[in-house]
Amino acid sequence: SKTRHFKWEVGYIYASPDCNEKVLIGINGKFPGPTIRAKAGDTIHVELKNALHTEGVVIHWHGIRQLGTPWADGTASISQCAIDPEETFLYRFRVEKAGTYFYHGHYGMQRAAGLYGSLIVDAADGEEEPFRYDGEFNLLLSDWYHQSIYDQMVGLSSKPFRWIGEPQTLLINGRGQHNCSLAAHLIEGSGKCESMSKDCAPVVLRVLPNKTYRLRIASTTSLASLNLAIGNHKMVVVEADGNYVEPFMVGDIDIYSGESYSVLVTTDQNPSSNYWLSIGVRGRKPKTSPALAIVNYRPNSPSKLPESSPPVVPEWSDYNHSKSLSYRILARRGATKPPPQSADRRIVLLNTQNTVDGYTKWSINNISLALPPTPYLGSMRYRLKNAFDGGMPPENFPSNYDVMRPPKNPNSTQSSNAYVIRFNSTVDVILQNANALAVNVSEIHPWHLHGHDFWVLGYGDGRFDEEEDVARFNLKNPPLRNTVVIFPYGWTAIRFVADNPGVWAFHCHIEPHLHMGMGVIFAEGVEHVGRIPKEALTCGMTGKMLMDNHLP
Ligand code: C2O
Ligand code: CU
C-alpha cells in the first residue's frame, strides 16, 4: 500500500454549473473538487489550505471510518476546530475498504455551496471485486440553488422561517441545464446555453456495444432524493455505501443524499442509437427538471439525439416503489459476517419538526442539536468541564406520543448533549419518523453515521413495536451501510458495534435539516483516542488549554 499526497486549496470561484454564473466553493480552482483515487489499504494525505477569505472550512470523508484517526473526520465542532482562513490542516487517514465514496464540506452549509468531490477506492493489489466489468463511469449527483448558502442559512434561522424551496437544477458531475434544453446543447449553436457550454455541457458516457460497465453513483444533494434510470437498459445493483450487496436487477434506482451505489449496465441494446440517462426528484413534489446525460454507443456521434424519450421518473409520492428497492438490498453472500445476534443497548430516536422560541427546528427526542464552540473530541479527550451541555439525552420518547399527527406541544429545546456509548458494545438505534408541523406531512430523512458502517435490521410503517418488530429483525444477511433512509411515518432499525474510539455525528444528510438541528452525537472509547494533532484543537476551551500549557 501507498501514501497518496494531495495539496488542495479551498476557495471561492466563478462557475456556471447550470449555465448561470455564480460564486461557489471549489478546490484548486475546480468544481466539483478533484477525484481521489486510491487502493484499499492506502494512506491519503491531503494538505488542505483554506483560501476562503472570511470563513473557516473542514472536509469530511464520507464513508471512511477513520479508525484510529477520529481527528481527521472533518466535522467542525465535533472532530476538529474549523481551519481558519490562510491556515493549512493535514488530513491523514487510511482507506480500508474498496468502494464508492465522496468527500464534502462539513461546516455550516458549505456542502451546498459546491464543496464536494469523489473518493474512489479500488480493491487492493492482488484482490478482486466479486463481479466483472469492462469499464466504469463515475456519476456524482447533486442539486443546485441559485440563492447563496448565506441567504439560505439566514432564512432558515429567521422568524418567520424562510424555507429554501426546491433546487433550481440537478447536477451530474457538477453540470446541469437550467432553462435551456439539453437538445439545444447537443445541436450546435443555441444562444444562452452555448455561451457557457464548457461548465454546463451534458455528461456523455461513451460506451461500446455488448460490454458491461460499472456506474459508480453517489449523491451529495442538499435536499433532493433522486431516481436514476437509463432508457431501455436494466441495471444490476452490486455495491451500496462501499459494501457489496447480493446482486439484483432494477429498471431504476432511488438514491438519497449520502448514499452511494455501484450498478452494472450491459450495453445490449440497438447500437445504432444513443440513450438517455435521466435523474429526477423523489419524495417531494418536484419543481426541478430531471438532469439528463447521454449514453453514447460508439461509433455514433455523441450529439446524435436518442430515438426514445428519456425514462419517466416514478411518481414522486410512490413510496411503495422506493420501499421495495430498499427492502431488496441485502448483504452479498459470504462478503461480510452477520451482525452480533443481540444488542447491549437500544436507543430510540423520534424525529420531529418543532419550534424553539418560535424558530422552526428539527428535534430528536425533543432536542434540537446545537453544536458547541469547542469540538467534542478535544473537550472529551482532555476532560474539560462545561464544554458542552451535560446530562444524557433521552433514549426513548413518551409512549403516548402520536407519530401520525403533528406534535401536540411543538416546543422543544436546543442542546449540545451527547450519547456516551460503552466502548465495544453493540448498539441498536431505532429511527422513528413522525408527522411534521403541518398536518398530513411526513418527510424522507436519510440518516448518516460517521465512523462506522451499520447493519440495517429492518424497516416498518407506523410506530416501532419493541416486541413484534424486534422479533422480525433480519439478523441473517442485513446490508452494511453508512446511510439509511426513514420513510414517511415509518421506522428504520440499525445495529452497530462501538469499536472506533472517537466522537461521531449521526444526522440527517439533508443539509438544511442538519442545519436546523437534526442530528445527535455519539461518543465511544474516547479515553483510547491517540494524540490529537494540535491544529485540530486551536479553538474554544482546547485552544485555551494549549495556551495555558505552553505559555509561561
Ligand atoms: Cu456526508 Cu456528516 O456527512
Ligand atoms: Cu431530514
From TrEMBL:
- Determine if Repeat is one of this entry's keywords: yes
Q: Which CDD domains match?
A: CuRO_1_AAO, CuRO_3_AAO
Query: Which transformation does this protein catalyse, written as a reaction?
Result: 4 L-ascorbate + O2 = 4 monodehydro-L-ascorbate radical + 2 H2O
**Per the UniProt entry, what is one GO biological process?**
response to virus
Domain Plastocyanin-like residue range list: 10-123, 137-299, 404-525
> Could you say which EC number(s) this protein's record lists?
1.10.3.3
Q: Please give an example of a GO cellular component term from this record.
A: plasmodesma
- Localization in the cell: Secreted
Q: Which UniProt keywords apply?
A: Copper, Disulfide bond, Glycoprotein, Metal-binding, Oxidoreductase, Repeat, Secreted, Signal
Q: Which PROSITE patterns match?
A: MULTICOPPER_OXIDASE1 (PS00079), MULTICOPPER_OXIDASE2 (PS00080)
- Enzyme kind, highest EC tier: oxidoreductase
**Domain of life (superkingdom):** Eukaryota
User: Which SUPFAM superfamilies does the entry link to?
Assistant: Cupredoxins
Q: Which cofactor does it need?
A: Cu cation
**Does the record carry Metal-binding as a key word?**
yes
Q: List the InterPro entries hit by this protein, alphabetically.
A: Cu-oxidase-like_N, Cu-oxidase_2nd, Cu-oxidase_C, Cu-oxidase_fam, Cu_oxidase_CS, Cu_oxidase_Cu_BS, Cupredoxin, CuRO_1_AAO
Q: From the UniProt record, which GO molecular function terms apply? A: copper ion binding; L-ascorbate oxidase activity
Q: Which family does it belong to?
A: Belongs to the multicopper oxidase family.
Summary of the function given for this chain in its UniProt record = May be involved in a redox system involving ascorbic acid.
Tell me how this protein assembles.
Answer: Dimer.
Q: What is this protein called?
A: L-ascorbate oxidase
Q: Which organism is it from?
A: Ensete ventricosum
